[in-house]
Specification:
The protein is an alpha/beta fold and 619 residues long. The protein is 41% helix and 17% strand.
Length: 619
């Protein structure tokens, strides 16, 4: 895993901009801790930071290839292409010679062989840029689901790009300007594909290539979900899913550095861990290493809430014993969660504030602890989206709300009647954002974009649409968060359930099969029923844990009090001060109400973001 940056300016030679390119590259040091490099020639400048996973000794970047003694193309690449060995064999048969064992060189030579159409041949998680010296063109490519991030900013004479917004903001040509549209993206929990929280930045869309030349920019979609007939019966469907999972996990075990699984004790991560354990033992005679995160006294003092019914660690420990895994329990304290350096690192990793507070901090600290042992971790992300694991997918009132169903659920939860994390902001400010209209309009647009089959009944048509909306408007938030918090610690997070073959197959699997036994994720449970303990198969979905220590809520309250008493706080004009004072007067009410806590978390992060990024609000 790596960080990539670049700058193309057709109006001038960039040879004198090495210091600026290096500054852009250095913002991504945490993504690549093993090496870094820059390359400048004429109108193009590329930078790279590397965390070595494949061909540790020989895969340095930027990587340039030659034909007939002259340089023809240079690449900076972030990700893993799981079928690179097969592609290398095919390319050798077509006359290509390789000087490294890296998947990076395979990707570059695939481009030389097939042009931008090479993207459709790559299977994995990736974002890369190729400067074609022959054509004087830049090609940007992002993987099918958008697991790896890639941002860009158009310029009158070219483009800037980078793995994260901070890389582009390190160039004086890009200013941290944030308009009302961008604030909608920041406060909404349904993100418009391709948008950014900074006015001049966009994200390359998943499954898309951008080609930038003197004549302008051309965008091409090389992958999108399609509606196709599903011809397998129940047994055939379960069997095919099991075969796919084995093939996917086996491919994603490819690594020249230590690898592990992130094990929550839910069926998603337990299934991945079980299959990984099987293949690791079969091929190498080694046990898989697993990690679970918990908090001090969490299991002992656990209190169920509206979405968490039991602590993860008990189930994760049971799975680890079942698999004979080398199991590590990461135990975090309230002091860890409130550590200023860690919380600042979380904000900087994501380049924006979020409502998730201790969930983000514990996720970041988990990645940091895992990195002490492993450089690659397999996770259970994407399973809920493709198998149907969210409670709001089964709630008729939410499905009929003419709004993203997870957003409709927010408004029903105690602590977020104004929307998640927005309870302490000025009503006039929120009215400017008009998130109610945003959600309704964008939901209708998103739902209309879902590819449908012509012979489906109303339920099947609705749930296919909901699945598509979930994959395109909900999942990107999770993938971006996971990548940023993991890569802030140079930890590569792989997502087996995000394999496009599995996503395509399940998108076209009827909802009646996905729920054949009346439960969520019925097909996944059936496919792995003999691989994980029955207690895990019967366990309801539980999201990432949150601390229930009252001391944590009290510390948040103290920070909020300090913020509103600091006249230099840039967020003060945008806050609902009566609501803030009411929250400060009732501290006990937020001790165990994690949704209510989000209101404080968002204010604190928003204020810190305005300060650190010197944000210019254009509202």
């Amino acid at each position: 895993m790596c960080g990539i940056v670049g700058w193309v300016d057709f109006g001038r030679d960039l040879a004198g901009e090495r210091a600026t390119l290096r500054a852009m590259t250095d913002t991504l040091t945490n993504r690549g801790v093993d090496d870094s490099g820059v390359w400048i020639r004429g109108h193009a400048a590329l930078g790279h930071t590397r965390t070595a996973i494949i061909d540790v000794a020989g895969g340095a970047q930027p990587l340039t290839v030659e034909q007939d003694g002259r340089q023809v193309a240079t690449i900076v690449y972030n990700g893993e292409v799981y079928n690179f060995k097969q592609l290398r064999t095919e390319l050798r048969a077509r006359g290509h010679e390789f000087r490294t064992r890296s998947d990076t060189e395979v990707v570059l030579r695939a481009y030389l062989e097939w042009g931008v159409e090479c993207a459709s041949r790559l299977e994995g998680i990736f974002a890369f840029a190729i400067w074609d010296l022959r054509r004087q063109e830049l090609v940007l490519v992002r993987d099918r689901l958008g697991v790896k991030p890639l941002f860009y900013a158009r310029r009158p004479e070219g483009v800037l790009f980078g793995s994260e917004p901070k890389a582009l903001l390190a160039n004086p040509l890009v200013k941290p300007v944030v308009g009302l549209d961008n604030l909608q993206e920041l406060f909404a929990t349904a993100k418009r594909p391709g948008m950014s929280v900074f006015r001049d930045l966009r994200a390359v869309l998943p499954g898309t290539t951008l080609t930038i030349g003197r004549a302008g920019m051309a965008q091409r979609r090389y992958w999108a979900l399609e509606a196709r007939p599903h011809t397998d019966d129940l047994d055939g469907t379960v069997g095919h899913i099991r075969e796919l999972l084995h093939d996917i996990v086996l491919r994603e075990l490819e690594s020249e550095v230590p690898l592990c699984t992130a094990l929550s004790g839910g069926v998603d991560s337990s299934a991945v861990s079980a299959i990984a354990a099987y293949w690791r033992w079969k091929l190498d005679g080694e046990r898989i290493r697993t990690f679970v995160t918990t908090f001090d006294d969490y299991a002992k003092a656990f209190q169920p809430d509206d979405v968490r019914f039991a602590p993860d660690e008990v189930y994760a420990d049971e799975v680890a014993r079942h698999l004979k895994a080398d199991h590590v329990r990461i135990q975090l304290s309230t002091r860890d969660l409130m550590d200023r350096a860690a919380r600042d690192a979380v904000l900087y990793a994501q380049d924006m504030p979020t409502t998730l507070g201790d969930m983000d901090t514990s996720n970041y600290l988990t990645a940091r602890r895992i990195k002490e042992h492993s450089t690659v971790a397999l996770s259970g992300e994407v399973a809920d989206e493709i198998f149907g694991g969210y409670s709001w997918m089964y709630h008729q009132q939410l499905l009929a709300a003419d709004m993203f169903p997870w957003v409709a659920k927010e408004y029903l939860m105690p602590g977020s009647p104004r929307g998640q994390g927005r309870g302490l902001f000025d009503p006039g400010f929120m009215a400017k954002l008009d998130l109610g209209s945003y959600y309704r309009d964008q939901y209708r647009t998103a739902l209309a974009a879902a590819p449908l089959a012509g012979d489906e009944d109303d339920t099947e048509r609705l749930m296919r649409g909901i699945t598509h909306v979930t994959l395109t408007w909900w999942l990107p938030m999770l993938l971006d968060r996971d990548d940023r918090l993991a890569m802030a610690n140079a930890l590569e997070l792989r997502v087996p359930y995000g394999d496009h073959r599995l996503v395509e197959y399940l998108y076209n699997t009827p909802w009646r099969l996905k729920t054949f036994d009346g439960r969520e994720k019925s097909l996944l449970r059936a496919a792995v029923r003999d691989l994980v303990p029955h207690s895990v198969l019967d366990r309801a979905k539980s999201p990432w844990p949150v601390t229930q220590d009252p001391a944590y809520a009290e510390m948040l309250r103290d920070e909020l009090s300090a913020l509103v008493n600091d006249r230099s706080s840039p967020s003060l004009p945008l806050l609902d001060l009566p609501a803030v004072r009411a929250t400060l007067d009732r501290p006990s009410e937020i001790a165990h109400q994690w949704v209510s806590r989000m209101n404080i978390e968002m204010v604190l992060q928003f204020d810190a973001w305005l300060r650190r990024y010197d944000v210019q609000l254009a509202i």
